[in-house]
Design a protein that fits this description.
Layout (H helix, E strand, L loop, with lengths): L11 H13 L1 E2 L1 E3 L2 E3 L6 E6 L4 E7 L3 H18 L3 H17 L1 H12 L3 H24 L12 E9 L2 E5 L5 H14 L3 E5 L6 H12 L7 E3 L4 H10 L5 E5 L2 H11 L5 E5 L5 E4 L5 H13 L11 E5 H17 L18 H17 L1 E4 L3 E2 L5 E2 L2 E4 L5 H4 L6 E7 L2 H9 L3 E2 L1 E5 L3 H10 L4 E4 L14 E2 L8 H8 E9 L10
Parallel strand pairs: 1-5, 7-8, 7-10, 8-9, 10-11, 12-13, 12-20, 13-18, 17-18, 20-21
Antiparallel strand pairs: 2-3, 4-5, 6-23, 14-17, 15-16, 19-22
Helix pairs in contact: 1-4, 2-8, 3-5, 4-5, 4-7, 5-6, 10-11
Bound molecules: nicotinamide-adenine-dinucleotide.
The site of nicotinamide-adenine-dinucleotide (NAD) has 31 residues, from α8 and α9.
Length: about 500
């Protein structure tokens, strides 16, 4: 393995140091500014997906730990909400510190989540950008409005933070997916309890160290490690946490909706996807090919916005499938820390088994073109796969969340639209055509929260992110995050005493 030859700071010695550090201690919670063991002292193990050996031991949080974190966050809220200027200063400091610790964060994410270095480096940079972007919003965005009705009343609105935010994240891109919620939540005056996924808990620990180094007031940011049904559920049910930002599976999102209903919590759910990429015969086929291959196989295929259903127009179908298979065959599968690697191991043996089950279903129900088999017997490696299917097949309808592309032919625009929308999910869509009117028509009628035209997924922080149907319930990003993480209040003041009807 050529460990990070092209990235001088990440040497094999550096990687060994990071490994030793995580192996030496049990990863703690971060509550009220201090690293603490779990109240019950229970621990769980997190595995290295490249060999399934134990990477670290982590305290397994329960309701008592969440309660301590929620109380600390509630107490810290009183001071934190006071000054946007102060929050801006801290967020800028956090962005700098994320950059300072970028190498360690990148190595931890590669080791823990199996994501490859080239992807993870970009994600760490994005994590820092999340803080610098929302730092700039902290002061400006809280501005209110006035409502001139007549000269006897002053009506105005103000935005105030909601309180303690519960942030529950999945295992596929833990640092990026947590910071893009933590940053706006904090910028707009809230405090946070983060519950990271149990399969990739390590960067949350490093993030907590960065918060400590930034010297944030204790309790503003807290991390409780543990399982979804225990620590996660305790966050969902805690009465002092009025808001939940959740990213994960659709079924978990539905359960959280149910469990939080008695407390009428504010929810933002970012859920699963089965996003179509639609390639018309007039498209720039080279670019469409590059984008389709990147969108399904990057992040090891464990990507919510993956273009996992490629809808390809009939006339070019066979040739395009052949080229997809050629490209899949050339993808470099390897250790996440090898800078040459394009696809790393899947997160966990259980997830590998799930993806391999879909491969078997695909082989029975659809036409297997290439790949999909396990590589080796130690880690969770799998060869990027290509299937030709009909749109109603299981592998065309269910989220596999692995490097398996399902390709489906279509006749014309109406057929493409019908097939694209025939899905319970509606997160992203991608349209490739040189006919701009058609591209806009498709974008208007596609049942997706986000559509990219002649492009892969390049996300800009001010734009609304989120899905429709079973892919989610909300939008975040830019002003949409402001709406979610604040309450809008109306205040009315008479400038001249208004007549008051007299009763009694
Ligand atoms: P998951 O739903 O199993 O777990 C997500 C988080 O929820 C974890 O932290 C888990 O511990 C916690 N959890 C589980 N049960 C819980 C409960 N009863 N109460 C509270 N918390 C609970 O999802 P996953 O397997 O970690 O992630 C993969 C899924 O995430 C895929 O479906 C993928 O599409 C989705 N995802 C969506 C987006 C998006 O932005 N739409 C982004 C990334 C991943």
């Amino acid at each position: 393995m050529k460990l990070a030859e092209k990235t001088p700071a990440i040497t094999p010695e550096f990687i060994a140091q990071v490994r030793q550090r995580v192996a030496r201690q049990t990863v703690p919670h971060f509550i009220n500014g201090a690293f603490v063991p779990g109240e019950r002292g229970e621990v769980f193990e997190t595995l290295d997906p490249s060999d399934n050996q134990v990477l670290a031991r982590v305290y397994r949080g329960h309701a008592q730990d969440v309660d301590k974190a929620a109380r600390a966050a509630k107490a810290a809220f009183v001071g934190w909400k006071k000054s946007a200027k102060t929050r801006k200063k801290y967020l800028l400091r956090l962005a700098e510190l994320l950059e300072k610790h970028a190498d360690e964060l990148a190595v931890l994410e590669c080791l823990d989540a199996g994501q490859v270095l080239r992807i993870v480096r970009a994600q760490v940079a994005r994590a820092a950008e999340n803080f610098s972007f929302y730092a700039e919003w902290a002061e400006r965005a809280m501005e209110g409005q006035t409502f001139p009705v007549d000269d006897t009343w002053l009506n105005y609105s103000v935005r105030v933070p909601v309180g303690v935010c519960g942030i529950i994240t999945p295992w596929n891109a833990p640092l990026m997916l947590s910071t893009w919620r933590i940053a706006p939540a904090l910028a707009f005056g809230n405090t946070v309890v983060l519950k990271p996924a149990e399969w990739s808990p390590l960067t949350a620990w490093k993030l907590a160290e960065i918060f400590q180094e930034a010297d944030l007031p204790p309790g503003v940011f807290n991390v409780v490690q543990g399982f979804g049904e225990e620590a996660g559920d305790a966050v969902v049910r805690h009465p002092d946490i009025p808001l939940i930002a959740f990213t994960g599976e659709t079924t978990t999102g539905a359960l959280i909706t149910q469990n939080s209903a008695p407390l009428l919590k504010r929810l933002s759910l970012e859920l699963g996807g089965k996003s179509p990429v639609i390639i018309f015969e007039d498209a720039d086929l080279e670019r469409a090919l590059d984008a389709t291959v990147f969108q399904i196989y990057s992040f090891n295929g464990e990507r919510c916005t993956a273009s996992s259903r490629a809808l390809v127009q009939e006339n070019l179908f066979d040739a395009f499938v052949e080229r997809l298979a050629e490209r899949a065959a050339r993808i470099r599968v390897g250790h996440p820390l090898d800078p040459e690697t394009e696809v790393g191991p899947l997160i966990h043996p259980e997830h590998l088994a799930r993806v391999l089950r879909y491969v078997e279903i695909g082989k029975q129900e659809s036409r297997h073109v290439f790949g999909g088999e396990r590589i080796g017997s130690e880690g969770n490696y799998i060869r990027p796969g290509v299937f030709v299917a009909e749109n109603h097949h299981t592998i065309a309808q269910e989220e596999i969340f692995g490097p398996i592309l399902t390709v489906i032919p279509f006749k014309d625009e109406a057929d493409a639209l019908e097939k694209a929308n025939h899905s319970k999910y509606g997160l992203a869509a991608y349209v490739w055509t040189k006919d701009l009117s058609r591209a806009h028509r498709m974008a208007l009628h596609l049942e997706a929260g986000m559509t990219w035209i002649n492009a892969h997924n390049v996300r800009h922080l001010p734009t609304p992110f989120g899905g429709v149907k079973f892919s989610g319930t909300h939008r975040e990003g830019g002003a949409h995050s402001l709406e979610f993480y604040t309450e809008l209040k109306h205040i009315a003041v008479p400038l001249v005493d208004p007549p008051i009807p007299r009763f009694g």
